[in-house]
Structure formats: C-alpha cells, structure tokens
Design a protein that fits this description.
mainly alpha; about 65% helix; globular
Length: about 170
C-alpha cells in the first residue's frame, strides 16, 4: 500500500479540485518513468522477451507528450504489474516500478510507488550485505533527477509517506 487513505490535494489536479497543475503532473510522470527505467534492466535480464514494463514506461512518456490518453497509460501500467506477478526479488520490483510509473497518468501520487519499487529493486539486486547502501544510492540518484519545479513536493511526499513505502526513502 503506497497511497494514503486521504488523498493529498497537492497531488490532485486543479480541474479536480486540487492544486496540482498539469505541467507538474507531467513532471511527476516523467520523473517516475526515469526512476523505473533506471532499474528496468533488472527485469529485462530475467524476462528479455517480455516488453510490458518497458512499454509501460514508454506509455507514461507518451501520455506526457499527449500521444495517448490516460486510460491507455493506466492499462499499460497494469500490464507491467502483471509481468511481475510470478517473479520475486529485483525483477519483480523493477516491473512494479514500471507499472507505477505508467499509472501516474491516472493518479499523480503513484510517483512515489515508482520510486519506492525502484529502490526495492536496487536493494534486492545488491550483493549480500550491500543492500542498504544500494538503496541509499538509488534514492539519492532519484533525488538528483528531480525537476526543480516538483522537488519540494516530492521530498515532502517522501517524508510523509515513507512508512507506507516500506521506509524506502530513509535507507
């Protein structure tokens, strides 16, 4: 469970009564796609012939460009998460990260899901005893990718939802 029971209005678009602009929603989607793509190789190493997680990341970016509707990106996210179903460890978490990235088009607050699953993937892929360091490095890498316009929002969201996200953002 990565979403709070009560939606944060900062992650609800203006036209739906929140304060999130379309431009910032798109930045969140791009950042989530970047986080997921960073660990995608962990899935593709195990399932090189399964394109669903990569397609989900591509659909997230296509949504930002206005090339696909939200429902198409959301469906691709579901398919990516389906690719994870029978896997374990890093490959599973990497597919979930891709799925979460695609569904940001539907619910902006899934941006932390993509990031948290990518951190879990990095931790799971690390050699024994190096998981915490790998998780911290992945988290820092993600933070370095944050666009300035949404940096404060995402960092505050990480603080507020860290417990819901398996404490991924405190290493």
């Amino acid at each position: 469970m990565i979403l709070p029971k009560v939606r944060d209005p900062r992650f609800v678009t203006v036209r739906r009564g929140g304060s999130l602009t379309d431009a910032d929603h798109q930045l969140l989607a791009l950042w989530a796609a970047t986080c997921a793509e960073h660990v995608l190789g962990l899935f593709e190493a195990v399932r090189p012939d399964d394109p669903r997680p990569r397609q989900a990341i591509e659909q997230a970016r296509a949504w930002v460009r206005g090339e696909v509707k939200m429902m198409q990106a959301r469906a691709a996210g579901g398919h990516a998460m389906g690719a994870a179903r029978d896997l374990r460890g890093a490959a599973r978490f990497a597919a979930y990260a891709a799925g979460q990235a695609a569904v940001v088009a539907h619910v902006a607050a899934h941006e932390l899901g993509a990031a948290a699953y990518a951190i879990k993937a990095a931790r799971a892929a690390a050699p024994e005893g190096a998981g915490d360091a790998a998780a911290r490095a992945e988290c820092q890498w993600q933070r370095d990718q944050l666009p300035d316009a949404v940096r404060g929002l995402v960092l505050d969201d990480q603080r507020l939802r860290n417990d819901l996200c398996w404490s991924a953002f405190t290493g």
